[in-house]
User: Fold this.
Amino acid sequence: MSEPRTDTAVVTALLERGRTLAGPALRAAVDRLVPQMRHIAAYHFGWIDAEGRPADGDGGKAVRPALALIAAEAAGGGPEAGVPGAVAVELVHNFSLLHDDLMDGDEQRRHRDTVWKVHGPAQAILVGDALFALAGEIILEAGTDRAARAARRLTTATRKLIDGQAQDISFEHREHVGVEECLEMAGNKTGALLAGAVSVGAVLGGADDRTADALEEYGHHLGLAFQAVDDLLGIWGDPGTTGKQTWSDLRQRKKSLPVVAALAAGGPASGRLTALLMADAKKSQEEFADFDEAEFATRAALIEEAGGRQWTADEARRRHDRALAALDGLLLPRHVRDQLGALAEFVVIRRK
Assistant:
């Protein structure tokens, strides 16, 4: 197993290639929607502002498109072969974001108001549905056996993503959630779509099932690392970098990995955190919204004291290592293996 590349220039080039190759095809896909849906989708993607003026918004990290293109190369095809997969995965990802923002009550994404906040809940649901439908349309258009195989993998990944969101919501109404349950949820909600991006790109590039399955395992563990880092940023991230409020996950009472790990750790800090969170659960959302910064800071400090922060950081690194181990035994071009290593490293050191 080769050592991961940490050169940020390598990652920047991969992400930019993903945007450059998949970006025009993504816009062309969105252009198929009726004008009202197209307008709202364009706002969500950052292409226009709330008044409809052209904008150069933050379109996200573009990790999934980058993975789809690299996977097509890993299978022996050119990166262009993975473009339909990159577009389809981005459409599914953004379908989930539109719905998640509404379900979670998030008012900000990428440093500006979310779609439901600007255009209303009904429109956010409809546009999300439209993007989901477009994903299947785009990936099946080639009409080949590869396209059909890729579509099956994308459909499975989407179903797992939805399962993960359902699990996440169910956790909000439970007093106790185990670490393994939390990892299973993250594997579905985040890991499935990163795994889908890699396996769909690989199939479109000509991979057999063995190669696609190994790359899918890489993507699954990478997704768990990605979610672990997201959970760290959801509590301790810099709002100026993440675009979210301070202590955003604590404000939403999310049972994220640092919280669940801290509650399971035992010891005085874990006990104090348990008592606080049990009391929080009995408060109305209005009462909870009146908490000041110091109260959230206290909860974050207890999570850290109980070991939840360190455990989650260690888990991100463990999953990074398992992702790279999944590539063992595959005959990959050296530059492709290095690129997959560089992206894995980027996932665990990112700050947004």
